[in-house]
Amino acid sequence: MHVRAIAILGATGSIGTTTLSVVRAHPSRLRIAGLAARSRWRELVGPAKEFGVGVVALADPAAAAEARASGAFPAGTRILEGLAGLTEVACLPEVSVVVSAVVGTAGLAPTLAALKARKDVALASKELLVLAGKFVTEAARVSGARLLPVDSEHNAIHQLLRAKPKGDIARLVLTASGGAFRDTPLADLRHVTPDQALRHPNWSMGPKVTIDSATMANKGLEVIEAGWLFDVPADRIDVVIHPQSIIHSLVTLADGSLQALLSPPSMAYPIQDCLLFPERLPCPAPRLDLAQALTLGMTPPDPARYPCLGLARAAAATGGTAPAVFNAANEVAVEAFMAGKLPFTGIAELVGRTLSAVTAREPAALDEILAADAESRLIASGLAPGLGL
Ligand code: NAD
Ligand code: MG
User: pTM for the whole thing?
Assistant: First the structure.
C-alpha cells in the first residue's frame, strides 16, 4: 500500500492540528514529511518526534534560530526559515499532498509553488482563492495538480459533484451556522465584545474565522471561493442558515431536487476526505447518533444582520481585484475589532467604505492583486479610526 507523504503549512493551527489527528489515525496510509508554522516552534517539537518529520519551517527567522539553538528537535531535523523555508517544505520531492492552512494570505507563494510542482493541495486557506483564484486555479490546471477543498462546505459540494455531469447542476447551496450572534437583538450588535464573538455555537476554529462566522464575512469569502473551485457564478450560489452545522452544503439539480452531505461538525471529516480521496475509512471523530432526536433547520440569512454577505456578493459581481479588496478590508476590520478599536458593526461599515474607495481592475499578473491588497489595507487602516468606538 502506497503511503502518502503530507506537508502541513499552518501546522500549529486548528486545521493543522486536526490534520495531525487524521494522519495519526491512518498510519498505513498517511505520513508527515514536513511541518510549517509562523513562530510557535515549541508546538512542533512533539509532532516532529511523533511522526518522524525530517523538515520543519518557521516563517519567523528569530523563531527558527531559537528552535535550532534549543536542541529540542530530534537530531537531523532540518529547521528552515522564512517564505523560502515554507516553499521548500511544500515542494519536498516526497510530498504528494500539501495541506495549505495558513490563516490569511501568507501561504500564497508556497501554495502556488506546490501546485506548479504538481503537488495536490488540500486547501483550507480560502483567502488564497478569494485573492488570487485566477492564478491558483490556473497553476493547478497547467500542472495537473488537484485542488481539494478542506473548507467543510466546499468539501461537501466536491463530494456531491463527483461523477455528475455539469449540466445536472443548477445551483450550489452553502450552509452557514449564523455564528455567535445569530439570535442577538439587532440593536445590541453594536456593543458585542470580541470575547462574545469568539464563542462560536458549533465549531472550534481559529479566531479570525470565528469572527468571520459571526459577521458572515466568512460565508461571503466562501461564495467567492466556491465560484473559483466549481466554476459557478456567485448568482447561482445560495446561502442558508442551518444552525446545527450537520448539513455541510447542498446542490440543487436541474430537475429541482436537492442533494445534501451530512456529517458531525468536525473538520476531521473534510480533512480526511482530502487526504484519503477517493478511499473511505473510519474517521477519528464522533459519529452522528441517530438514536437521539435530530432537528435540522434552515432559514434565509437576514441582510440587515449580515451586511458583509451582500458586500462579498457585490465584490464577486465586480470581479477582478474587488474580492481582494473585500478580503483585505475585512482583515483590517477584524484586527481593529479584536483590538477594541472598532465596534462589531464597524466591520461591515469599514469593508463597505473600503470597497467604495478602491477602484477594482482586472489583474493581468499576481503583482497587481498584491498591490490592490496593500492599497486596500492602507485605505482601510486610514478609515478605521473614523468608525471607532
Ligand atoms: P489558526 O489561527 O488556528 O492557525 C493559523 C496557522 O497559520 C498557524 O499554524 C500559524 O502558525 C500559521 N501562520 C499564520 N501566519 C503565518 C505566516 N505568516 N507564515 C506561516 N504560517 C503562518 O487558523 P485556522 O482556524 O486553522 O485556519 C486556517 C485557515 O483555514 C484559514 O484560512 C481559515 O479560514 C481556514 N478554515 C479553517 C476552518 C477551521 O475549522 N478552523 C474551517 C474552514 C476553513
Ligand atoms: Mg466553511
Answer: 0.96
